[in-house]
Structure formats: C-alpha cells, structure tokens
Inverse folding.
C-alpha cells in the first residue's frame, strides 16, 4: 500500500481525488487547513467503506509547520504520491490588485507546492518510485482576465514539474501537471451558467470532478511510468 498526500483534499475536486486514490488501494492523507472537519468526515467515510485514510491539518504556506508535520508523517511510511490540489482565488485586474491578493494566491499554489514537496522528496527518492502531480488550471495555459496572480501561480507549477521530471527520472519518479478547465463545482456553477458553458466549451458541458480524479488516478499508476514532465489539459476541447 502506497501513501498518497492530497493537499486541499476537503474541496470538491480534492474529495473526488481522495476517493479515487483510496479505491485504487492507497492510504490517503487528506490535507485541509480551514476545513479540517470536512476532511475528517471524508476520512471517516472512506474507512467505513473499507478503505484506508486519515486527515491532517496544517497551513501549507508555513514551511516550518508543514515540514514538521510531514517529517512526522513519513517516519514509518514514505509518501510516494503527492497531489498538490490546494489553491485559492483572489481575482482582480492587475492594475487594481492589492499586493496581498497577489501574495496569497502565489503562497498557496506555488510556494505551497514547494513546502509540501521538498520535505518528502528524499524519502520518496529512496524508494525509487514516486508520483508528483500538481493540479493547475486552464488559466495557467491561456491566462484569464482578472487572474494574473492565479495564472502566474498555476503556470509556475508547470515549470516546477517539468524541472522535477528531469531531476527525478532516474529514480523512477514522474512529475506531471493536470490542468482542468470548467469543472462542475458549487463555485463554478455560480460563475458559469449553462448557456455560457455551451458557448465556451466545445463539448457544451462542464467537466466532472470524478473525471479529473480519473486522470490523476492514471498518472499515479504504474501504467503511467513513462509519462513525465507533461501538462495534461482536461477541458472539453477548450484549448
């Protein structure tokens, strides 16, 4: 049984990823910061369903706190699958964007990636098997009005994973990016009415969180051992 850490595991996409990885036979560590109760409820449900999981709470923008908790977690079992799914929005045109809006988004998505990945890297390398998967966004590929901070953070994940894929290839570790388009969640439903989605998406529907989870599941499997350094879009043909 491999140990998988999913950051932002209490959100809708994060939950779908946790459920899929658990059903694949992994022990899933469900990370949350503010929504720890949702993470604990998910872990309890997964255990009730016969899977293996537990929830963990930390602020991934705090390197010292994150390192301390992860170093404790990997004492007995190295984390061999990391899915960095955590991310936030603070949208505004750059001309009117506050520095805190820029910093907050970069800190969670990009600095958070370093903070959770760096402490587990050497133990993962010793096992000579690992999967690093970052959840990006179509905004990281195309840019988006009012999201210079978000697009910068998400595109930064692509550069980080492409570099990691080169550094870790000889150790049997892959590093890839999943870039969803419009995925059906409570947040996206408020922002993208059905008619707008039909205009924007060639498939004329929003994607499902379970479809993102299926792609993550494949990239985390042995079947994807020769896929590394890639940014894989899942967006219904938008780009």
């Amino acid at each position: 049984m491999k140990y998988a850490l999913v950051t932002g595991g209490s959100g809708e996409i994060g939950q779908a990823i946790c459920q899929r990885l658990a059903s694949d036979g992994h022990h899933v560590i469900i990370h949350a910061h503010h929504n720890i109760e949702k993470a604990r409820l998910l872990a309890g449900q997964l255990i009730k369903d016969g899977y293996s999981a537990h929830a963990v709470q930390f602020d991934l923008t705090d390197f010292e706190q994150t390192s301390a908790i992860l170093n404790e977690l990997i004492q007995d079992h190295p984390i061999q699958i990391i899915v960095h799914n955590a991310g936030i929005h603070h949208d505004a045109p750059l001309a009117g964007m506050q520095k805190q809006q820029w910093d907050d988004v970069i800190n969670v998505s990009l600095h958070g990636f370093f903070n959770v990945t760096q402490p587990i890297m050497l133990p993962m390398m010793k096992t000579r098997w690992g999967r690093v998967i970052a959840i990006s966004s179509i905004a990281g590929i195309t840019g988006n009005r009012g999201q210079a901070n978000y697009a910068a953070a998400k595109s930064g994940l692509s550069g980080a994973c492409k570099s990691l894929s080169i550094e870790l290839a000889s150790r049997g570790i892959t590093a890839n990016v999943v870039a969803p388009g419009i995925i059906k969640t409570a947040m996206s439903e408020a922002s993208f009415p059905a008619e707008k989605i039909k205009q924007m998406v060639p498939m004329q529907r929003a994607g499902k969180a379970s479809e993102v989870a299926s792609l993550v599941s494949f990239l985390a499997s042995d079947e994807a051992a020769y896929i590394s350094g890639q940014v894989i879009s899942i967006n219904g043909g938008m780009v």
